[in-house]
Design a protein that fits this description.
The structure is a single chain. By secondary structure, this protein is an alpha+beta fold. The chain has a domain at 9-98. It is 28% helix and 39% strand. The protein has 4 helices and 6 strands, in the order E-H-H-H-E-E-H-E-E-E. The protein has helices spanning 17-25, 27-34, 38-45, 72-83; strands at residues 3-13, 48-50, 58-68, 99-108, 111-120, 123-128. A 6-stranded antiparallel sheet has the order 2-3-1-4-5-6. 28% of the residues are buried.
Length: 132
Protein backbone atom coordinates (compact mmCIF):
# COMPACT_ATOMS: atom_id res chain seq x y z
CA UNK A 1 0.00 0.00 0.00
CA UNK A 2 1.29 3.49 -0.86
CA UNK A 3 1.43 6.29 1.71
CA UNK A 4 2.10 10.02 1.54
CA UNK A 5 3.27 12.13 4.46
CA UNK A 6 1.95 15.69 4.30
CA UNK A 7 3.16 18.58 6.46
CA UNK A 8 2.18 22.15 5.79
CA UNK A 9 0.35 25.37 6.52
CA UNK A 10 -1.98 27.83 4.86
CA UNK A 11 -3.08 31.32 5.88
CA UNK A 12 -6.81 31.70 6.47
CA UNK A 13 -8.67 35.02 6.72
CA UNK A 14 -9.81 35.52 10.31
CA UNK A 15 -13.15 36.83 9.07
CA UNK A 16 -13.63 33.58 7.06
CA UNK A 17 -12.70 31.15 9.84
CA UNK A 18 -16.24 29.73 10.07
CA UNK A 19 -16.18 29.03 6.31
CA UNK A 20 -12.76 27.38 6.60
CA UNK A 21 -14.05 25.14 9.38
CA UNK A 22 -17.11 24.24 7.28
CA UNK A 23 -14.87 23.30 4.33
CA UNK A 24 -12.86 20.93 6.51
CA UNK A 25 -15.95 19.52 8.22
CA UNK A 26 -17.54 18.79 4.83
CA UNK A 27 -15.24 15.76 4.52
CA UNK A 28 -18.13 13.43 3.62
CA UNK A 29 -19.03 15.29 0.43
CA UNK A 30 -15.35 15.76 -0.41
CA UNK A 31 -14.75 12.04 0.19
CA UNK A 32 -17.45 11.22 -2.33
CA UNK A 33 -15.90 13.58 -4.90
CA UNK A 34 -12.39 12.22 -4.20
CA UNK A 35 -13.59 8.62 -4.44
CA UNK A 36 -12.51 7.52 -0.96
CA UNK A 37 -14.46 6.18 2.00
CA UNK A 38 -16.21 8.57 4.36
CA UNK A 39 -14.68 6.93 7.45
CA UNK A 40 -11.19 7.43 6.04
CA UNK A 41 -11.98 11.06 5.22
CA UNK A 42 -13.28 11.62 8.77
CA UNK A 43 -10.07 10.13 10.16
CA UNK A 44 -7.90 12.39 8.00
CA UNK A 45 -9.87 15.45 9.14
CA UNK A 46 -8.08 15.14 12.48
CA UNK A 47 -4.81 16.08 10.75
CA UNK A 48 -6.07 19.66 10.38
CA UNK A 49 -5.51 22.26 13.10
CA UNK A 50 -6.96 25.77 12.80
CA UNK A 51 -5.77 28.74 14.79
CA UNK A 52 -8.91 30.12 16.40
CA UNK A 53 -7.65 33.55 17.42
CA UNK A 54 -6.24 35.83 14.74
CA UNK A 55 -2.89 37.49 15.07
CA UNK A 56 -2.86 40.72 13.02
CA UNK A 57 -5.86 39.68 10.93
CA UNK A 58 -4.90 36.18 9.88
CA UNK A 59 -5.12 32.67 11.22
CA UNK A 60 -3.14 29.66 10.10
CA UNK A 61 -4.38 26.22 9.16
CA UNK A 62 -1.87 23.42 9.68
CA UNK A 63 -2.01 19.90 8.29
CA UNK A 64 0.13 16.96 9.27
CA UNK A 65 -0.52 13.26 8.68
CA UNK A 66 0.60 10.16 6.90
CA UNK A 67 -2.25 9.23 4.61
CA UNK A 68 -3.00 6.58 2.03
CA UNK A 69 -1.88 8.02 -1.29
CA UNK A 70 -5.30 7.21 -2.75
CA UNK A 71 -6.71 9.86 -0.35
CA UNK A 72 -4.42 12.60 -1.66
CA UNK A 73 -7.21 14.11 -3.82
CA UNK A 74 -9.21 14.75 -0.63
CA UNK A 75 -6.46 16.81 1.02
CA UNK A 76 -5.70 18.57 -2.25
CA UNK A 77 -9.39 19.51 -2.62
CA UNK A 78 -9.42 20.88 0.93
CA UNK A 79 -6.25 22.90 0.38
CA UNK A 80 -7.64 24.26 -2.91
CA UNK A 81 -10.95 25.23 -1.29
CA UNK A 82 -9.19 26.98 1.59
CA UNK A 83 -6.85 28.76 -0.84
CA UNK A 84 -9.84 30.27 -2.62
CA UNK A 85 -11.11 32.04 0.49
CA UNK A 86 -10.43 35.65 -0.34
CA UNK A 87 -8.92 37.92 2.24
CA UNK A 88 -10.47 41.24 2.97
CA UNK A 89 -8.82 44.25 4.49
CA UNK A 90 -8.63 44.01 8.28
CA UNK A 91 -9.86 46.70 10.67
CA UNK A 92 -6.26 47.87 10.98
CA UNK A 93 -6.15 48.41 7.20
CA UNK A 94 -3.86 45.46 6.56
CA UNK A 95 -4.50 43.39 3.44
CA UNK A 96 -3.42 39.80 4.03
CA UNK A 97 -2.76 37.55 1.03
CA UNK A 98 -3.52 33.85 0.84
CA UNK A 99 -0.35 31.81 0.91
CA UNK A 100 0.96 28.52 2.20
CA UNK A 101 3.31 25.62 1.69
CA UNK A 102 2.87 21.85 1.92
CA UNK A 103 5.70 19.33 1.91
CA UNK A 104 4.77 15.85 0.60
CA UNK A 105 6.82 12.63 0.74
CA UNK A 106 5.34 9.73 -1.20
CA UNK A 107 6.34 6.09 -0.98
CA UNK A 108 4.76 4.08 -3.77
CA UNK A 109 5.87 0.45 -4.10
CA UNK A 110 9.44 1.27 -3.13
CA UNK A 111 9.55 4.40 -5.31
CA UNK A 112 9.95 7.67 -3.44
CA UNK A 113 8.78 11.08 -4.58
CA UNK A 114 9.25 14.42 -2.91
CA UNK A 115 6.65 16.99 -3.82
CA UNK A 116 5.61 20.46 -2.71
CA UNK A 117 2.42 22.47 -2.99
CA UNK A 118 2.91 26.22 -3.01
CA UNK A 119 -0.28 28.17 -2.31
CA UNK A 120 -0.39 31.65 -3.77
CA UNK A 121 -3.22 33.93 -4.88
CA UNK A 122 -5.91 31.25 -4.58
CA UNK A 123 -4.01 28.62 -6.56
CA UNK A 124 -2.12 25.49 -5.58
CA UNK A 125 1.08 25.12 -7.58
CA UNK A 126 2.57 21.60 -7.61
CA UNK A 127 6.31 21.12 -7.72
CA UNK A 128 8.79 18.27 -7.49
CA UNK A 129 11.46 18.69 -4.84
CA UNK A 130 14.94 17.25 -5.40
CA UNK A 131 16.21 14.49 -3.14
CA UNK A 132 18.60 15.81 -0.54
Amino acid sequence: MAYTTIKGWLSVPANRLAEATAILDDHQAMADRAGIGRDLAASYRSGWLLQTHPINGACLAFYGAEIKTTALPLIEAQVSALAQLEFQETEAGVLVETDGYFHLDQDTQGERARLAWLVRDGEVLKMTRPFE
